[in-house]
Amino acid sequence: MLSDHEREQFERLLLPHLDAAYGLARWLTRNDEWAEDAVQEAYLRALRYFGSLRGDDGRPWLLGIVRNACFDLLDREHPGSQTEPFDEERHADANMAAGALLVLPVNPEAAAIGRAERQLVRDCLAELPRDFREAIVLRELQGCSYRDIAEITGVPIGTVMSRLARARRLLQGTISQRVKEDTGT
Amino acid sequence: MNCIEVGRLLNAYVDAELALERSLAVEDHVADCARCRAALDGQGALHSALARSCAPERAPDRLRTWVRRVARDTPATKPVRRSKLDWLAAAPGIAALLIVGALLIARPWQPGATAAPEGTRVVYHIASANDIGANLRTLKNHLDAEPRSQVVVVAHNNGIEFLLQGARDESGRAYAEIVRGFRERGVDFRVCTNTLTRRQIDPGTVIREAALVPSGIAEISRLQGKEGYVYLRL
Fold first, then answer.
1. Which of A49, A160, B64, B95 is 20 to 30 Å from the Cα of B234, by its Cα?
2. Cα distance between residue B152 and residue B137, in whole Å
3. Would you place residue B147 in the very low, low, confident or very high pLDDT band (cuts 50, 70, 90)?
4. Which residue did the predictor score with more confidence, B44 or A96?
5. Sign of the alpha-carbon torsion through B152, B156, B158, B164
6. Among all residues of chain B, which has the CA nearest to that of A72?
7. Which of the residues in chain A have pLDDT under 70?
8. More confident residue, B206 or B81
9. Does B38 have pLDDT greater than 50?
10. Can you tell me the ipTM of this complex?
11. With an 8 Å Cβ cutoff, are A102 and B42 in contact?
12. What is the reported pLDDT for B104?
């Protein structure tokens, strides 16, 4: 049980990060309902282990618990949902520079960025293997520093850097490939 | 700086994670190298495509309400399934009852304040992967003899291995299941995060029946020094 003071701290340090927690959980579970379940579980764990939070920055600590709760939930209740047929050969251009030339947005006449294109980007991100998806979401969507990502995912900073580089390459490759398929070029 | 070095640093450059000196070196190179500039533009295009496509998420209101209530009013309890959440948000009184109810169901065996005096507090320190089976039998015999004992198992060094997902005993039984049995008898299992970090083990692979503590040794010291636990090394 937490003291009143600890409850105040809990509210002050962890409640403001609920949207971030939910966003991460959605991208990791790829399912709204599971994301809510995982976030609930994460906040309960955070309550239970609140004493182990050091310092005043609750965000990386909470997000670390959220990702663990997501993976626990997927392993326990939805095994098999994590098997990801992902063909790197097909998606990733072997050449970094070639892969880097993202085809988006190519055509000014294509009336700004349409809904279909935004959906395409989201689909490609959702299809990335777990570790790479996590790296992109934490850095690009949540704006976490490398140090925070290392804390959240429990890997050294060097691994964060290489994972992120690879994730971006894969994502660029996938998006480019998909755009080519869609436009038949 | 050449293209290979720049390629290696490009992500950190884009993410503003490079020291000033190296940032400037990357910029110098990119100014004169069309290939690296294209790679840099690609990064920028990806970043803006993601920013345009993935709006910041907002947690549903019922989840917000639930988290606030849990933080304020209730002891830590079992999660409530999402299907019940709408309901909970709508009926705060019932919500509190349900949560308290879930707590009672989760721990029906716990003695209340008026029950028999507390048992001895014991912390088991497991630091080796050898003889886990024998150690857990010792723990079982201990609980059989003294069911009211309050036991915490702190796993550290190679002693953490049986608490990782997929670990099985000699007969092929999942340790997670065995640990669950002990949890129901009130035993807490705690894993040393320093050990995980040092051995580069993903904390997500620790079974959910065990909790993470920052340092196994600090936890043992705290239990002994502040909470009056007796120390047993296995």
1. A49
2. 15
3. confident
4. B44
5. positive
6. B208
7. 1, 81-113, 184-185
8. B206
9. yes
10. 0.82
11. yes
12. 41
pLDDT of A105: 47
B134 contact A CB<8A: no
CA count, 13 A, side-chain hemisphere, B99: 24
pLDDT at B75 over 80: no
- Tokens in use for A107? 């055509």
How far the first Cα of chain A sits from its last, in Å, is: 62
According to the model, what pLDDT value does residue A1 have?
64
- Angstroms from B177 CA to nearest CA on chain A: 12
Q: Is B106 part of the contact surface with chain A (CB cutoff 8 Å)?
A: no
Q: Read off φ and ψ for residue B155, nearest 5 degrees.
A: -105, 140
Rg (C-alpha) for chain B, rounded Å, is 26
Nearest CA in chain B to A131: B202
CB pairs under 8 A between A and B: 155
Distance (Å) of CA B48 to CA A115, A166, B18: 15, 18, 21
Residues ≥6 apart with Cβ < 8 Å to B137? none
Q: B202 vs A172: CB contact, 8 Å cut-off? A: no
Per-residue model confidence (pLDDT) at position B163:
95
Chain-centroid distance, C-alpha B225? 25
Give the span between the Cα atoms of B207 and A132, in whole angstroms. Answer: 23
pLDDT above 50 (res B107): no
Strand order in the sheet with B150-155: B211-213, B188-192, B150-155, B121-126, B230-233
The encoded tokens of residue A10 equal 């809990």
B contact test, residue of A3, A30, A52, A101 with most B CBs within 10 A: A52
- Our CA-based measurement puts residue B135 at a distance from the nearest CA of chain A, in whole angstroms, of 26
Residue A105 corresponds to which tokens in the numbers above? 């947005």
Contacting residues of A for B38, CB less than 8 Å apart? 97, 100-101
Chain A interface test: which of B52, B67, B152 (most A C-beta within 10 Å): B67
pLDDT mean over B145-171: 90
What's the one-letter identity of residue B13? Y
Mean pLDDT, residues B211-227: 88
- Cα(A4)–Cα(A17) distance, integer angstroms: 20
